[in-house]
Design brief:
The complex is a heterodimer of chains A (120) and B (298). With 120 residues, chain A is mainly alpha-helical. Helix content of chain A is 57%, strand content 7%. Chain A folds into two domains: 12-75, Orthogonal Bundle (Arc Repressor Mutant, subunit A); 83-119, no CATH class. In chain A, strands 1-2 form a two-stranded antiparallel sheet. Chain A is elongated, with a radius of gyration of 17 Å. With 298 residues, chain B is an alpha/beta fold. Chain B is 34% helix and 29% strand. Chain B is built from eleven helices and 14 strands. A six-stranded mixed β-sheet of chain B has the order 6-7-8-3-9-10, sandwiched between helices. The longest helix of chain B has 18 residues, at 159-176. The chains are: A mainly alpha (120), B alpha/beta (298). Chain A binds chain B through residues 4, 6, 9-12, 14, 38-39, 42-51, 54, and chain B through 27-29, 163-164, 166-167, 170-171, 173-175, 188, 191-195, 211-212, 215, 274-277.
Amino acid sequence: MISLNYRDSRPIYEQIRDELRKLIVTGAIGKDEKLPSVRSLATELAINPNTIQRAYNELEAEGYICSVPGKGSFASGDTGADDARRKELMNKVRELLRELRYLGVTEAELLGLIKGGAER
Amino acid sequence: MIEVNKLVKRFDGFAALDGAALTVPDGSVYGLVGPNGAGKSTLIRHLTGIYRQDEGAILVGGEPVWENPALKARIGSIPDDWYYFLQASIRDMMRFYRSFYPRFSMERYEKLKEVFAIDERRTIRRLSKGMQKQAAFWLTMCCLPDYLILDEPVDGLDPVMRRQVWSLVMSDVAERGTTVLVSSHNLRELEDVCDHVGIMDHGKVLLERSLEQLQDNMVKLQVVFPDGMTEVPPELPVLHASKIGRIHTLIMRMSAEEATERLAQYAPLLVDAVPLTLEEIFIYELGGVNYAVKDIVL
């Protein structure tokens, strides 16, 4: 369910964190659904369990998952609290907009994209 | 916990270990790297009670290893030159291991038979190098060790088998809290499996850090400064700077957030934080120690 790219320069824990976040955001891991255990991911990916624990801790701090002692980690389904991520993504969009403007994409086209994207 | 303190070992006056010190916390996976002849294998032979030190102390779980059979029964080890009896089959060696390791698990032995898929009746001597390594892993993992000492463990294994054995080791770390010390030349691979890294040269441990410390304390930034600013501001604590066209690449010893914040006052056109690989981190970490880093990072 998670694939690591060994040519990626991001550290492993960041890759795991980002992949899990993607699964949660897209709904592949639904609200209140249990995430794979640290142990099973460590075995499956042949990665140090502490590295995986670190990814889980960060996701918990960001509010994407909550862990219940003795039961495991669950997708929290409520990510309103994550301001840092929101800021990061807005910056990314700003960067993209700058490039799109350079390429001559009009405002109307972008607005259409936002509306279309929201419907989906 | 494995603690090595001021370890000295001389062979005919040559100090193979010259005050080496390291600490492996419980339940962690410690990667030991260094060039050939740095003293990695010598250190490892002290940890498994094969060599006796001239000076210094080695404590595994608070006890000295030398001539301590009760402790050694809890230490699993795969040395670089794994020993087996000349005519022994894997099954014969299993009996030998079973007689030394009280926790030897036959249940696991049977399970791993399917993983390794080598006929247990085959003579080990007639197996290929990689298959011998597999046999060593097979038997060592059956001993249910609390401490696992591995010297170049995946040397000679094919990529699928490498993954397989790491997955076995990692599942033991997760389930049983096994403490692992592994020597290797492959930094890329260590980045996946280790949470602590120590780097050795000339019989000393030069640097020892947790992976988290390493990754969070150094950042590579690509920066384009506004027009008219061609030089990196001298007040920035830059470890290393290079420039291609207008793009400056800066290495700084701080977190990515802090670095971005500090650069913001110069109103740069572009700031992009790029993660560093373990290899790069070592080069810059050791650059200050004035060592011939290229020889160390392999």
